[in-house]
Specification:
The protein has 17 helices and no strands. With 282 residues, the chain is an all-alpha fold. Helix 1 runs antiparallel to helix 2. The model has no long low-confidence stretch (mean pLDDT 93).
């Protein structure tokens, strides 16, 4: 059986809650991987899903002890480590570069992930980057710093420059919600749904807003409608995962986090899901 087939078998065993079969299969893949880092990360991710944290961390320690010489490949490792909750290690790698110039966005996101908000803002703001994802991250950081007026201004600018996509709309709702304007997010999101009831981003926005307002059945309904049309929609996947987490179905939530991380290594949505599972299970 090839490695990809073995991974599919493991995922099926997790879905069927045959968790006692998972660790031996993962260990067999690790033993046969020959130190292949992408394979080791997939193994670590699966172990995190089933809360085999000690085994997961052992694999991540092994990766840290055998980093590739190429600093650009080390950057890939740092991003994946951050996605699995090892932000401190990710920043250690980034800080060690002698020649490779890391993207300020990635540096800032890593600092943000470990709670270094002021430094995260300085790095990204000083870089002058004003692409969509950088402006959204700057908005998040300003919220974390309690600078809600500045966050609101950034969110509005992001929508003005980059339009009404899922990410820009959720960014705006996040600021409103963190300012205590939860009910206003519902009115805001429904306004876009009135424009188009079939727009996946608008449906996913409403799923997100329903969840943060505690209306889980409605959130699941909206998210499911999106995923019927686009099964890779990250926003809908995250909302569905968060609903699973809030219902204490942590394995299903973590499986979706793993799917997101596989599709987009280091995606902050996967980090948020894992953080939610950890907080809600404690």
């Amino acid at each position: 059986m090839d490695t990809e087939a073995a991974f599919e078998n493991i995922k099926n065993d997790i879905k069927e809650e045959k968790l006692d079969l998972v660790v031996p299969q993962v260990q067999q893949i690790v033993d046969q991987a020959g130190g292949d880092i992408p394979t080791l990360f997939k193994c670590a991710s699966l172990l995190k899903v089933i809360e085999e944290e000690d085994h997961c961390q052992e694999i991540l320690d092994t990766i840290m002890e055998s980093l590739p010489d190429d600093e650009s490949k080390q950057m890939d490792v740092a991003i994946a480590l951050r996605g699995l909750g090892r932000g401190e290690d990710a920043y250690e790698i980034i800080s060690s570069f002698k020649e490779y110039k890391a993207d300020p966005y990635e540096i800032s996101l890593t600092l943000y992930s470990i709670g270094e908000y002021e430094e995260a803002f300085k790095v990204l703001d000083d870089s002058g980057k004003d692409d969509q994802k950088s402006m959204i991250l700057l908005t998040d950081i300003q919220c974390a710093l309690g600078e809600f007026d500045k966050a609101t201004e950034l969110a509005d600018k992001t929508m003005y420059y980059y339009g009404t996509s899922y990410d820009t709309l959720v960014n705006k709702c996040n600021v409103m919600f963190r300012m205590g304007k939860a009910k206003e997010t519902i009115k805001f999101s429904k306004g876009y749904l009135k424009e188009s009831k079939s727009n996946n981003d608008f449906l996913a926005l409403n799923a997100y807003v329903m969840r943060i307002n505690g209306r889980l059945p409605a959130a699941v309904n909206y998210a499911s409608r999106v995923l019927k049309n686009d099964y890779k929609h990250i926003g809908a996947l995250e909302t569905l995962a968060m609903c699973f987490a809030e219902k204490k179905s942590f394995i299903n939530a973590k499986l979706l986090a793993g799917a997101i991380n596989d599709a987009e290594p280091g995606n902050v949505a996967a980090i948020r899901i894992l953080d939610a599972c950890r907080l809600l299970s404690s």
